[in-house]
Specification:
Layout: H1 3-11, H2 14-21, E1 26-27, E2 29-34, E3 40-45, E4 49-52, E5 57-63, H3 69-74, E6 77-82, H4 88-95, E7 108-110, E8 116-118, E9 123-135, E10 138-150, E11 158-160, E12 163-164, H5 165-176, H6 182-203, H7 206-220, H8 228-246, H9 249-269, H10 279-290, H11 294-310
Antiparallel strand pairs: 1-11, 2-3, 2-6, 4-5, 5-10, 6-9, 7-8, 9-10, 11-12
């Protein structure tokens, strides 16, 4: 590898790479196959893609660290089961490492190739393995479609920025319609970000804690005529930096949901204007966090939320 290529590779921050990949909405599928012992096997995947129409080829990629890698490598085929928005529970089930028997209680049947087809999916593609290629930390499986079937008229389950778009759309409607009260939202922020601040004080790197401070300073740097879009990005960035320092993927997913609420409220509900009275309170949160003073950071956040509501 050339020095330029190596430098470019090192410049890619994995967390940011993952975050920006999330900007591309993807469908969600459960990939199934039959293990050598004849038992069904499957996992959730959002890396499914079409490859070719003639011959009909599709692909999905699987982490090399996955426990099912050898199962799919030994199989001569697999099935792509496209989930509907009503099947989000199935997505979570087949993605969980804590559930040993993924198929327990799941309605499925053997397809024409003898592999599991999950009932009520939007579409299913039964494939023979065409090729498998190792690529970085994943293996790409290309399948030639042998049989296909379509399901009902439901909408597809879509994954976007770490959350199901179905959930994001529901929240958007609740916010715009005024169904989410200020007291409930404030309580959610105090509970969620209070926990994230405590985790960040324990787990965050020095660089991540400094990023929280920079995010607070970025809000103060806006002139009075800053467009709303930039104000929203800065406000979201402050809370996103706290979530990133907390290093808990489940809470980060919840934080992204709260960011959607914040964005919709700032766009459609709140009268957004400069709030210099909040500047010292955000700095207080950041400074306490940099000292790894979890109680002080949580107390400062509580003060910030209280003052925000007074305004």
């Amino acid at each position: 590898m050339s020095e330029l290529a190596e430098a470019t590779r090192c410049a890619i921050e994995p967390a940011q790479f993952r975050q920006l990949l999330g900007c591309f909405p993807t469908g969600v599928a459960v990939i199934t196959t039959t293990a050598p012992d004849g038992e069904p096997a499957g996992l959730t995947c959002n890396s499914f893609s079409s490859v070719s129409l003639d011959p009909p080829l599709v692909l999905f990629s699987l982490r090399n660290a996955s426990r099912l890698l050898t199962t799919f490598q030994a199989a001569d085929g697999f099935v792509i089961n496209i989930l509907s928005e009503q099947q989000d529970a199935l997505s979570g089930r087949f993605a969980s490492s804590k559930i040993e028997n993924k198929f327990e209680g799941v309605a499925w049947r053997a397809g024409q190739l003898g592999m599991p087809l999950i009932d009520d999916c939007l579409a299913s593609f039964e494939c023979r393995v065409h090729a498998a290629h190792e690529a970085g930390d994943h293996t790409i499986f290309i399948g030639e479609v042998q049989h296909l079937s379509g399901g009902g008229p439901d909408q597809a389950l879509v994954f976007y920025k770490g959350a199901y778009m179905m959930l994001a759309e529901s929240l958007r409607k609740l916010v715009v319609q005024g169904s989410l009260g200020d007291a409930d939202i404030d309580e959610a922020y105090r509970t969620l970000y209070g926990t994230l601040l405590r985790l960040a004080s324990e787990r965050g790197t020095e660089a991540e804690l400094e990023a929280v401070q920079r995010a607070a300073e970025a809000i103060e740097a806006h002139p009075d005529d800053t467009p709303l879009k930039e104000r929203i990005a800065s406000a979201s960035g402050f809370f996103a930096s706290i979530a990133a320092a907390g290093h808990n993927e489940a809470l980060t997913l919840m934080a992204q949901t709260m960011t959607s609420v914040l964005r919709e409220r700032m766009t459609h509900v709140l009268s957004v204007r400069p709030r210099p009275d909040l500047y010292p309170l955000r700095r207080k949160v950041a400074h306490a966090l940099c000292r790894r003073d979890a109680d002080g950071a949580a107390a400062a956040l509580d003060e910030l939320i209280t003052q925000l509501r007074k305004g």
